[in-house]
Amino acid sequence: MGNTLNDVSLSATDSLATAPLGVNARPMLEMSGIAKSFGTNQVLRGVSLTVAKGEAVVVIGPSGSGKTTLLRCINMLEDYEQGTVSVDGEPVGYALDRAGKRLRMGERDIAAAREKIGIVFQSYNLFPHMTVLKNITAAPIRVKGVPRAKAEVRARDLLAMVGLSEKENAYPVNLSGGQQQRVAIARALAMDPKIMLFDEVTSALDPELVGEVLAAMQQLARDGMTMIVVTHEMSFARDVADRIVFMDGGVIVEEGAPDQLFFAPRTDRVRQFLKRYNDRYRI
User: Fold this and answer.
1) How big is the CA angle at 241 (ends 55 and 24), to the nearest 5 degrees?
2) Rounded to whole angstroms, how far apart are CA atoms 237 and 107?
3) What's the rounded Cα separation, in Å, for the pair 281 and 178?
4) Torsion, Cα of 77, 217, 66, 109 (10° steps)
5) What's the pLDDT band for 282 if we cut at 50, 70, 90?
6) 211-215: which pairs have CB atoms within 8 A and are 24 or more residues apart?
7) pLDDT digits (tens, 9 = 90+) for 25-60
8) Which phi and psi (to 5°) does residue 96 adopt?
9) What distance in Å separates the CA atoms of residue 266 and residue 160, rounded to the nearest whole number?
10) pLDDT digit string, tens, across residues 76-96
């Protein structure tokens, strides 16, 4: 326990799961054999997933299927009993030594690895005593040592991207839920992550505010950000995802391109899950 990266191998790319990668391309994310339990409840059962650079993967499935836990394991918000995770070829949380033994990284190395991973939750978690601009610049200045002037230029660019340039001096209490969530997205992007994780970011919003948040995420996908999105917004999944992953019972039941999953699912479980949506829109 407490091993540093000097003690373990940095490479976790010898065995790749299926994803639309080029012949010699390195995946942006590789999860291999992730198992996670809470007491006697096994939430993840040996999940493996590979995500290519620039790919938008949407994870769907019933409540309790392990989707949120999967995201939380990627950046070690939840520890896990088996498996490994790597982002851009570097391990996160655990790595393999030269003998193939799985060893936990030191906390400093885990913290450094987390800087590559942006995550946005359904709760906004903005600092209420800080303006929007200060919410976005705090981490780059304090964690990465970015000069304040440079951090503010970057923050204003991100606010323009999410359509909130006029709100830089506002406090969170003066923003709608949709606006707060867009600030949360800008704050995560201010750390220049390699990959963005979104966990049901619209579930706490009023229906009329959902569209503005999804539009910001859709722009990110168009700009080539590597993304994993857990959502119940099936229309968003169809329109934005390069690949959809369906989870149930702690395993990946099926994955494929949106048209394949929605129009020609291979498993009865996915057909059953999507039936209500497909009937509603007469697909």
Assistant:
1) 25
2) 35
3) 26
4) -20
5) low
6) 212/163, 212/178, 212/179, 212/182, 213/178, 213/181, 213/182, 213/185, 215/163
7) 789 999 999 999 999 999 999 999 999 999 999 999
8) -105, 135
9) 42
10) 999 999 999 999 999 999 998
